[in-house]
Specification:
heterodimer; A: Arc Repressor Mutant, subunit A; three-stranded antiparallel sheet; elongated; B: 141 residues; alpha+beta; Alpha-D-Glucose-1,6-Bisphosphate, Chain A, domain 4; 4 helices
């Protein structure tokens, strides 16, 4: 699974971050504008935005002293494509399983 | 979105019962997936726990174990938080082949669950519909 896809999974797992995405679907916002919608400290909001950015669901653009958060439709497109999403998810899991079993077999052969 | 089943096969140079243990045993599952709170058991709910950003363990995937026929067949329902509780079905089949095990994974219901989950988001806010319209434009480019 590409880091983006795994990151997108993680970003979407949290209801607050899903709500942030809905807000950003109306218009781009500064951290302060996003924070206005929640009973949360600004650093907490920044942390959520960081995780959304890591998941490629939003992009952040400096404007003067502000940082503007913008929804990334392309990132969401990869998330909307659930079948492809899970397909890559399982590819990664199966290769980890392969490695874990090999390790186990080596141990028992010692 | 159509209801496509994902099918994956993998070959392991290990006996089926070894592979089975990695699919059902708490500690072994943790080595390649996320650790459940207990070994998987037929008829029981399970939850695979993983760390989130703040290091706190949260449910990553969960569902109910529907069938266990060790070491040949394991079926469980499966969902993740972004699917908003909509269940899919994961089936693991093991076959004894020369010198090892052939493992087949089938994951059913993903397309329908994805559509339902996005539907939930749409219900949250009409603005989402407009966004999805834009999304479709971007995707068809």
């Amino acid at each position: 699974m590409s880091p983006d896809v795994q990151g997108a999974f993680r970003a979407l797992a949290d209801p607050t971050r899903r709500t942030i995405l809905v807000h950003l679907s109306h218009r781009e916002m500064t951290i302060g504008e996003v924070a206005d919608h929640f009973e949360m400290t600004r650093p907490a909001v920044r942390k959520h935005l960081k995780i959304l950015e890591e998941g490629a669901l939003i992009s952040v653009h400096p404007r003067g002293r502000d940082r503007i958060n913008r929804l990334e439709p392309r990132g969401l497109k990869s998330v909307a494509d659930w079948v492809d999403h899970f397909s890559r998810f399982w590819d990664e899991r199966l290769s980890k399983l392969q490695a874990a079993i090999e390790q186990e077999e080596e141990k028992s052969n010692d | 979105m159509t209801d496509t089943t994902i099918v994956k096969t993998a070959f392991f140079a290990a006996a089926p019962k070894t592979v089975w243990a990695f699919l059902t045993d708490k500690d072994k599952l943790g080595q390649w997936f996320y650790p459940p709170e207990a070994d998987l058991a037929e008829g029981q709910d399970y939850a695979l726990m993983g760390a989130q950003g703040d290091g706190k363990a949260v449910k990553q995937c969960w569902g109910t174990v529907q069938r266990m026929e060790p070491p040949w067949l394991l079926v469980y329902t499966f969902t993740i938080a972004p699917l908003g509780g909509v269940m899919t079905t994961v089936t693991w089949r093991l076959e004894d082949v020369q010198g090892g095990t052939k493992l087949t994974l089938s994951h059913e219901g993903v397309g329908a669950a994805g559509a339902a989950a996005l539907g939930l988001l749409a219900a949250l806010d009409a603005g989402w519909d407009r966004h999805l319209g834009r999304l479709r434009e971007c995707c068809s480019r």
